[in-house]
Amino acid sequence: DAGVTQSPTHLIKTRGQHVTLRCSPISGHKSVSWYQQVLGQGPQFIFQYYEKEERGRGNFPDRFSARQFPNYSSELNVNALLLGDSALYLCASSRMDEQFFGPGTRLTVL
Amino acid sequence: RKEVEQDPGPFNVPEGATVAFNCTYSNSASQSFFWYRQDCRKEPKLLMSVYSSGNEDGRFTAQLNRASQYISLLIRDSKLSDSATYLCVVSHSGAGSYQLTFGKGTKLSVIP
Predict the structure, then answer these.
(1) Mean pLDDT score, A79-84
(2) B43 and A41: CB-CB below 8 Å?
(3) What are B74-94's pLDDT values in tens digits?
(4) Which residue of A has its CA nearest to B96?
(5) Which residues contact residue A103 at a Cβ distance below 8 angstroms, ignoring those fewer than 6 apart?
(6) Residue in B15, B6, B21 with CA at minimum distance from that of residue B82
(7) Are residues B58 and B44 in contact, defined by beta-carbon separation less than 8 angstroms?
(8) Given this model, what pLDDT does residue B54 score?
(9) Residue B40, SS3?
(10) Of the candidates A45, A99, A101, which has its C-beta nearest B101's C-beta?
């Protein structure tokens, strides 16, 4: 079975632009969570979606938004990019309590 | 105070050494506890869950003390392949949500 997949793997944007990151969960998993990992830090929770509904939101500004589609894939959108948004964005899918992470999207904001 | 605090590291140890990582968490309502391993520029992967009774998986032993809000990981007979960053993780759930809170991580380098 395929694991969690994310696209793109790398992305370079400039300040003020917006970005859309995509995630496909493991088959059968209905929950998707997004995390931001800044260099030298642990991942920080952004959102959780379950059955297309937002179930949890971390301490991130409204520039960050997400959605989940009927096939349980998910998108993370970030508007008005700042230099500080440069990070590895991780998607995790889960069926019960264990979360499985995708390889991440490395976003660089110049 | 950060929710999950770990030894700052890095730890540089010779092959065969025993190394211990310590972690404390601040939210007494935390429900589940884990150690994740993250290789350089890769995603975190679950190493093991941590239980109050303590649990062992080969060379790895994890302990949880809920009263002290303290979690530990012991690696015996270190291998070169153990070199990675070890992340202490706690979970919270409520109102239908479930989220993981990660520590900053402790980098381990096992030296030949």
Answers:
(1) 98
(2) no
(3) 999 999 999 999 999 999 887
(4) A55
(5) A4, A5, A6, A9, B42, B43
(6) B15
(7) no
(8) 87
(9) coil
(10) A45
